[in-house]
Amino acid sequence: MEAAAETQRVQTLVEAGVAHLPARYVQPPELRPHLSRRRDATADRGGIPVVDLGPSGGDPVAAIGRACREWGAFQVVNHGVRPGLLEEVRAMGSSFFRAPMEAKLRFACDPRSPASEGYGSRMLAKDDGVLDWRDYFDHHALPESRRNPSRWPDFPSNYRDVVIEYSNNMKKLAQTLLCMISQSLGLPPLYIEEAVGEVYQNITISYYPPCPQPDLALGLQSHSDMGAITLLIQDDVEGLEVLKDGEWVQVQPLSDAVVVILADQTEVISNGEYKSAVHRAVVNAHHPRLSVATFYDPCKTRKIYPAMQLITKQSPLKYREVLYGDYVSSWYSKGPEGKRNIDALLINQ
Ligand code: OGA
Ligand code: NI
Q1: What are the respective helix, strand and coil percentages of the chain, to the nearest 5?
Q2: What is the number of the ligand closest to the CA of 138?
Q3: Mean pLDDT score of the chain, rounded to an integer?
Q4: Is the CB of 225 under 6 A from ligand 1?
Q5: What is the atom index within ligand 1 of the atom nearest the CA of 261?
Q6: Mean per-residue pLDDT for 255-274?
């Protein structure tokens, strides 16, 4: 029984035609998404800011500083990554998830170890807890010593080349953004990049099948990301939401934009001046949804601590130093709910 549950993909349930949500996917009432209360949120109507990085975009460092302070999330346009590449990654992801189960299972992840590379569905190794209505493919992309494209799908035929090109482009864009975020805090441009050290990059393609009872489920439960910064692209189906002042606000899909989500280590480095964004994904009854998240993380032996330059009388040291590997273990053992992991680092709790 347990072995079957471990390899269960959400897509298999959907293809078998389940009419009711299986109990393991039913969220407790207080965590359900209240889909009927959702409203459209574009950048000029209460949504996350859109920052133009192009030559006519004004002062992007100031705009990013405001977005990080108010939201911990924003979208960037004119970011220099060719729009065709974003489209190729999405197309390649959907063609993988459309392939027969048998072909996909050749690339299954190891369900016993957390964050293992490959095709999977459940994020946490622990066995209790409500499951997300999501399947995914996780790629270990950087450093190159960890990159082994033979573990990635070989269909469509350009899959591995596209992932490599995308990985390199997302590394560059993340570094550009980390420079701007550092500058917006009054730190030297390379400060955050150097505090993080060599980048460990994972690329996760998430596939959210249509859900028979979307009001009862979540595609991905509420969490903040554990590394430094996340860059996410999505297709044209809504689903990503960011928590702002106690309200869930949807992130409008913009085909050429990249969604930027501040993660926990940037909150620590900024000594809490910027907060990591709490976010989740909701699902719907009719349309599958695809997103591609690229995580920019420290290596597990890296120690992360607040920037000394940001510690003042008015803003005293807020977070304890943390070994990133310990942070990751705690995240996977306690679960990601809300911000409980970063709260454990607070000096005055
Ligand atoms: C994630 C994430 C949201 C989405 O993978 O950490 O928050 O829309 N994904 O898929
Ligand atoms: Ni996330």
Answers
A1: 35, 20, 45
A2: 1
A3: 93
A4: yes
A5: 7
A6: 98
